[in-house]
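Technical annex B. To support the medicinal chemistry partners, we prepared a structural model of the target in complex with manganese (II) ion, based solely on the information shown next.
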Amino acid sequence: MSGSVTLPAEFSEALGHVAKALRSNGQLRVVTHYDADGIAAGAVLAGALAREDRQFHLTMAKGFDDDLMDRLTKEGNDMVVFLDMGSGQIDKLETLEGVTIALDHHKPVRKSRKVLQVNPHFHGINGMTEACSSTLSLLLAITLDPRNWALSPIALAGAVGDRQHMGGMKGLNQQVLDQAAEKEYLSIQKSLNLKGTTIFKAIADSVDPYFVGLSGRGENVTAFLDSMKINPDTALGSLDDFYRRKLTSMLSLRLMGQGCRPETVEELVTDVMWIPTMELSAADLADLLNACGRLGHESLGLALCLGDKGARDEADSLRSEYNARLRDRLMFIETEGVEQRDHIQHFEAPVASMAGAECGLAMQYILDQAKPTLALSTVGSKIKVSSRGTKYLVSKGLDLAAALKKAAEGVGGGGGGHAVASGATIPANKKEDFIASCDSIVGRQLD
Ligand SMILES: [Mn+2]
């Protein structure tokens, strides 16, 4: 591996096997998840395959389900590569003919003789905090050709998309970041972690961070900035040191006042990873990819990653639309509150594709930090569940993957994911049983 990333030997070997397999001929299908990490992972692999002149067909899927399996089985591919999924469905993957590869950072169920798995968990590396699928995709890409380091900013955007940058990049992500900076594919600058063309917009339109009482409330933002004698039309980057510090401390105080965890407050000033070739930051790119994915424009996200200039403007207006919808939902949750149980809190998310984002932001910025949050969306005869906790709760024993899996299976559904964020699907008429069971499981975990 190009001598610049240190990996356990078995990890490098696994990547080597996959790289070799990819160079063979035959019909190649790549399936990735539609979130920012998944799209970024897909873009990195697509870039690497293009350099190899390797033909492939890429699909971005909402998740791993029977429809996807049926489709793949019927297609009869010579090789299928799963990105950001597959670890939890190894039994099903083993039924596919041809070569099957899974690059995934979700907790693996078991090793497999049939499926080539690249998963950091097999090598003592934490897949929740130290490496995501786009990190793995990049490692594979540079195994194929070190020139693929040029794709490293995309991989880092994927890591931000999966929120692995919280509290600073760690592990493999940190190694990738160091190399990317050294090779000048990105530069690191300390800055207020907000997005927007003016300070007014950066606060009033902000959903991440979500400022209770300010986000979505323009008149309050005007008064807030006025109290500090800051001109609302100033560009974010042109605030001088004195006012930047003043604004930073006032915004930090607000986040503390609304009960955010210290790591969330610390995120307000971050090392921004600036991607000069794209003229945006990695966080901005992650945000744009999320908007593309959630609004059903995954291929626009892919085009954006691969350097299509027009795609950027299009993605930017999609994001404004998406943020406005998300902000409306967060303002609703802020004013109406959510349903409380002994150990969990939950609410109805009317649009299933937004539920995960709503749940994560509400957990981080608005709701009780002592209980994980569940968002429930009814889709036909089923309810889709998203859940989010905090790292602090996980350190106290919370495991949402285990909790949702057990509670969902208990009512004839299924679920899984990470300890800090997981999902489930259950029959719509089992909602009460599911919530009660989840509540008691989480209660035991946090006991
Ligand atoms: Mn991921």
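Notes passed to the chemistry partners:
The longest helix spans residues 309-336.
The pocket of manganese (II) ion is lined by residues 37, 84, 105, 132-133, 162 (CB under 6 Å).
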